[in-house]
Design goal:
- Chain A: Residues 36-363 form the Leucine-binding protein domain.
- Chain A: This is ABC transporter substrate-binding protein.
- Chain A: InterPro entries: BCAA_transport, Leu-bd, Leu_Ile_Val-bd, Peripla_BP_I.
- The complex is a heterodimer.
- Chain A has helices at 3-6, 14-31, 50-69, 89-101, 114-127, 155-169, 183-198, 217-224, 237-249, 264-270, 290-303, 309-328, 332-341, and strands spanning 37-43, 78-84, 105-110, 131-133, 148-150, 174-180, 202-209, 230-234, 256-258, 278-281, 355-356, 361-362, 368-373, 376-379.
- By secondary structure, chain A is an alpha/beta fold.
- Chain A has two domains: 3-153 and 288-353, 3-Layer(aba) Sandwich (Rossmann fold); 155-281 and 368-379, 3-Layer(aba) Sandwich (Rossmann fold).
- By secondary structure, chain B is mainly α.
- In chain B, 71% of the residues lie in helices and 2% in strands.
- Chain B is built from 25 helices and four strands.
- In chain B, the strands form two sheets. Chain B has a two-stranded antiparallel sheet with strand order 1-2. Chain B has a two-stranded antiparallel ribbon with strand order 3-4.
- In chain B, a hairpin with a 2-residue loop joins strand 1 (138-140) and strand 2.
- Chain B is globular and about 70 Å long.
- Classes of the chains: A alpha/beta, B mainly alpha.
- Chains A and B meet through helix 3, helix 4, helix 5, helix 7 and strand 7 of A and helix 2, helix 11 and helix 14 of B.
């Protein structure tokens, strides 16, 4: 039953994984029997995006352990097969063929980026296997067909919340925007800019930059000279940290909101320059909701560190799919129909999960606003500001 | 008019400072590259990886072991110096008497291995790298500069000074210069050129490592994916400064930094690399010896004939080819869609490799920008068919577009030879990708092109797994047949004559540019169709779908099969497309095997599996 996960375990993580698998197997065998129900995962285990695949596995393994301890899928154990694609579209389409042809697979999850995921979408659509993308924020991801579903936070719903915080709480009236020039960055930036303008703010400039950029001094001079009263960064954590540091070094002391600053890595990379930067997060470790408290505690116990956003998404995704399969069945059609019907599924990220059957995306995400403070985060409190 | 007023009112001082800061980082990279080019006449593509190794040794010393900065710098220099010397000993020296392309590719292999080792040991996540550096900052213009900025600039100047003293005041330095001028003559005068080469690679490695450490401290961030960008910038800097000119490399780095900074000031950060590569192309075309060259100075390049390994191609019996074609045709009957898909991918790679082996193998223009041709074809067909053109015509349009535009773009590069072609085509490839990214009204920019219609030929659907397999196989066979016919005609002989000796061919009345243009046009058509088919297969493409890594991969396939060899290109494509599948079980080590395979191949069978044609 675990041979599929033992294959990639021929790695430096061999011992960790063996330990993990054996702890999984104990309660799983006690509570479940019969053929496992399989989820096919297509994602990066090697290549430049390998760190995200590693975070996914943490979330998947923890979810699996709990699901199987709790009777699996109506008595059958749940398991997954992770195929490495290096986030390369040529490999995701091959893996798609493998999953579609394998009758064991009930539902597919992944891939990481929009380029690699969407290349495989026509195959999944024609093969009638649900492709569940949980990191796919590209606005067109679910538009290929009715087998593409996503619980990635739709920027159309998140960015207006961010804009409200930036304009009303932080008081920016003339905003200088810098954004990562990718599908995610550009889409988010456009929605943010529109929402901010609707709230009466002015966007002084919109500067795109490439993902491998390290030096932002010249761009910051350009932004500074449009005389904004605050900066909005639509960025990942590494570039957000670089921009914040270089801005402060150049003597730009404006208030900053940075999308990627919600990762603990940001704090390490930005150092003292990160203090006072605002950010927002969908998954708030500090939340007092019982689901979140349980997840954070279990994650820390298993891995000795707090969960990343990607691990939380991965954990959420498996729990959601398990809930769908428990309630509506494990055939491929059951999963597709079930995703459209499920309401109020538990989640550590969203208050409650249900899908809009038209867009096949989630509705009503919430955000928690955070402020970086002395190497940690505090939840933004309007009164105390 | 707004542009002019921007130009006048621009805060030039602030942009100059930001340009000089990043420029001195490029300069640090460029010094090592220039040194190696001077002695070994080689662009060391592993230099970026040495830079990354240096930053991680630095992290280990400073953060993990809490050593003081001075000690760390010495350890980094030692560590990367040894890495540099080992590269020379293991990957360059054994290739001494081989074609000039061999060591270049060998360094690409070494770079892959070093990067992957860092990935495995340190994980791909960026890390913070800080040290106890005094915290004062000087106000310059509206910004400030701190101790690290100054240290970087000083290190660049200091190391150039030390190098000058070493080269002109020591005996070993004299030997280095003698080797750079003429290694055979130096050998006859009793110079141990192996020792000289190793020393130079060691020094260059140490400089690269120190650069890695300082740049990591400057950004407070190191990451294992930085190698390639740094390497590219260093390369542009040495082209500006003169390939083997060490002080020129510093000037080149600073000039590049300034150009990028002013360019960002005028147009924005998305255009940064566009300027770098445009400058590179202009330099190659008009001042190939660099800005600081004396008039009339000629470098050892251009060269002819020696860039590609020559050998007798292996003749494959007709019956065997026929049998293989039959097996290929029957493959989908095995009902293994996964394998069918892998082979469809392999044949698409094969089409791309076929095009590249024509220009690089047969005509001798080694291209590292091949992906651009596929991108042109893919975008042309995708954009035309999403606006209503039937897919069958879209494919042809894509091929024609890539053939014509590709030839026009590459035309200025026809006068270049050897390494310069490789660098020039690399720049062209990057420029095409960046134009696609930035020309949003036409290409849809970062969002890419979505909902590209699936493969069909005038109403006959071809998007099923097996149908598209047969379609792509058919395309591959047709283009293979065409190319073989061309190579056996007078055209093929003319192309080979140009490769062997362009000057001699020209004296026989062959207009080499015309024939190079024909080759590029035909190759562009083939590659454009491959790109277009890919676009329809995926239904979604963006500027990164055909990137530099893809270009390098195709070049590796061509080398593996044997330059200029039609069946070799197909074999190379199939082996490389299938190779990762065999290494799936050891996923994390895949790229390691890949790099090692590349080096071993170049070492023991430089003419490729089937020999060059």
């Amino acid at each position: 039953m675990t041979e599929h996960r033992l294959l990639p375990a021929l790695s430096r993580r061999l011992f960790c994984q063996l330990a993990l698998v054996s702890t999984l197997a104990g309660p799983a065998l006690a509570a479940t029997s019969g053929d496992p129900v399989y989820i096919g995962v297509s994602g990066p285990l090697t290549g430049p995006q390998a760190q995200y695949g590693a975070m996914w596995k943490q979330g998947f393994d923890l979810a699996l352990k709990e699901i199987n301890a709790d009777g699996g899928i109506n008595g059958r154990p749940l398991d997954y097969i992770f195929e490495d694609t290096q986030n390369d579209p040529r490999q995701t389409i091959a893996v798609a063929q493998k999953f579609i042809a394998d009758p064991k697979i009930s539902v597919e999850v992944g891939d990481f980026s929009s380029t690699s995921s969407m290349a495989a979408s026509p195959l999944y659509q024609r093969g009638k296997l649900v492709q569940f993308g949980f990191t796919n924020s590209h606005p067109d991801f679910t538009k290929t067909g009715d087998y593409m579903w996503s619980n990635s936070v739709p920027q159309s719903q998140e960015q207006p919340l961010v804009a409200r915080h930036v304009v009303e709480d932080m008081g920016m009236k003339k905003i200088g925007v810098m954004y990562l020039n990718t599908d995610w960055g550009k889409t988010s930036k456009d929605i943010f800019a529109k929402a901010a303008r609707d709230l009466g703010a002015e966007i002084t400039t919109e500067e795109g930059y490439l993902g491998d950029e390290k030096d932002f001094r010249a761009t910051l001079v350009r932004v500074r000279d449009t005389h904004p009263d605050g900066l909005m960064l639509v960025s990942y954590y590494a570039d957000a940290a670089l921009i914040v540091r270089q801005a402060r070094e150049m003597g730009i002391e404006l208030p900053i909101f940075a999308a990627g600053a919600n990762s603990p890595e940001f704090i390490k990379l930005a150092g003292p320059a990160g203090n006072g930067v605002h950010t927002a997060i969908n998954f708030a470790e500090t939340s007092t909701r019982p689901e979140v408290e349980h997840f954070v505690a279990a994650f820390k116990e298993t891995y000795g560190q707090g969960p990343s956003h990607f691990a939380a998404m991965a954990y959420d995704t498996f729990n959601l799919l398990a809930a769908v399969m428990r309630e509506y069945g494990t055939s491929r059609e059951d999963v597709k129909e079930g995703l459209g019907k499920i309401t109020d599924a538990k989640s550590v990220i969203f208050p409650k999960v249900s899908f809009d059957p038209e867009t096949r995306r989630i509705s009503d995400p919430s955000v928690t606003e955070l402020v970086v403070q002395d190497g940690g985060y505090t939840v933004y409190q309007p009164a105390s500001q | 008019m707004e542009f002019i007023s921007n130009l006048v009112s621009m805060p030039w001082l602030d942009y100059s400072i930001s340009g000089l800061v990043i420029g001195s980082i490029y300069a640090l990279m460029a010094i090592g590259l220039a040194l190696i080019f001077g002695v070994a006449n080689l662009i060391n593509f592993a230099h970026g990886a040495v830079f990354t190794v240096g930053s991680y040794i630095g992290w280990t010393c400073l953060v993990a072991l809490h050593l003081p900065l001075g000690v760390s710098i010495v350890l980094v220099a030692l560590g990367t110096g040894i890495v540099g010397a080992l590269i020379e000993w293991l990957a360059i020296r054994p290739l001494n008497r081989q074609s000039r392309i061999a060591p270049l590719l060998s360094t690409i292999g070494v770079g892959l291995i070093l990067d992957q080792v860092i990935h495995i040991v340190f994980s791909p996540t960026p890390r913070a790298l800080s040290a106890n550096i005094p915290n004062w900052r000087i106000q310059v213009g509206n910004g400030t500069i701190g101790p690290i900025d100054i240290t970087i600039a000083l290190t660049a100047i200091l190391s150039a000074g030390l190098l000058y003293l070493f080269l002109y005041k020591t005996k070993l330095g004299m030997a280095v210069r003698a080797t750079a001028q003429d290694d055979d003559a130096a050998k006859q005068m009793g110079v141990n050129i192996n020792r000289v080469n190793m020393t130079v690679f060691g020094i260059a490695g140490a400089l690269g490592g120190i650069a890695g450490l300082l740049v990591g401290l400057y950004f407070n961030s190191i990451d294992p994916n930085a190698s390639f960008q740094m390497m590219l910038k260093g390369m542009v800097a040495i082209v500006i400064g003169g390939m083997a000119n060490v002080p020129g490399a510093i000037g080149g780095g600073l000039i590049l930094g300034l150009i990028e900074s002013y360019g960002i000031g005028l147009f924005g950060a998305s255009y940064r690399n566009l300027f770098a590569f445009a400058v590179l192309l202009i330099m190659l075309l008009f001042r190939p010896n660099g800005l600081f060259a004396r008039k009339g100075e000629r470098h050892a390049e251009p060269m002819t004939g020696t860039f590609v390994s020559q050998s007798k191609p292996v003749r494959i019996p007709k019956q065997l080819i026929l049998a293989l074609v039959v097996v290929a045709l029957l493959l989908p009957m095995a009902n293994q869609p996964y394998i069918t898909q892998i082979m469809t991918n392999a044949y698409l790679y094969g089409l791309a490799a076929l095009a590249l082996t024509l220009v690089s193998g047969t005509v001798g223009l080694v291209s590292i920008g091949h992906a651009a041709l596929l991108a042109l074809g893919a975008y042309a067909s995708a954009l035309a068919t999403t606006k209503g053109l039937p897919v069958g015509l879209g494919l042809i349009f894509g091929g024609l577009f890539a053939g014509i535009v590709g030839t026009v773009l590459a035309y200025p590069a026809f006068r270049l030879r050897g390494h310069y072609v490789a660098i020039g085509t690399l720049a062209l490839g990057e420029i095409v990708a960046l134009v696609i990214l930035n020309w949003t009204p036409v290409t849809n920019g970062a969002l890419g092109v979505f909902a590209i219609p699936p493969l069909e030929l005038f109403g006959v659907p071809l998007y099923g797994t097996n149908q598209s397999y047969w379609f792509v196989l058919g395309l591959l066979l047709v283009f293979c047949g065409l190319q073989v016919r061309l190579l056996n005609s007078h055209l093929g002989r003319t192309w080979r004559a140009i490769r062997e000796d362009t000057v001699a061919a020209e004296t026989y009345g062959i207009s080499s540019n015309y024939y190079k243009g024909l080759a590029f046009g035909f190759a562009g058509f083939t590659a454009g169709i491959a790109g277009a088919v890919t676009a329809h297969q995926w239904s979604f493409i963006n500027y990164d779908s055909f990137n530099l890594q893809f270009s390098v991969l195709i070049l590796t396939m061509v080398l593996l099969g044997g330059m200029g060899n039609v069946s070799g290109a197909v074999l190379g494509a199939i082996v490389i497309a299938a190779l990762p599948e065999f290494f799936r079980a050891v996923a994390e080590y895949r790229m390691l095997f890949y790099g090692a395979a590349l080096i071993i191949l170049i070492r023991f069978r430089p003419q490729g599996l089937l020999g060059s044609g």
